[in-house]
Amino acid sequence: MLKEAYSRPISLSDDTTPRVLPFHFHFIKKYGKNSFAWFGPNPMVNIMEPELIRDVLLKSNVFQKPPPHPLGKLLVSGLVTLEGERWAKRRKIINPAFHLEKLKVFTHKDGTGG
Question: Which residue windows are coiled coil (predicted)?
Answer without folding.
Answer: none
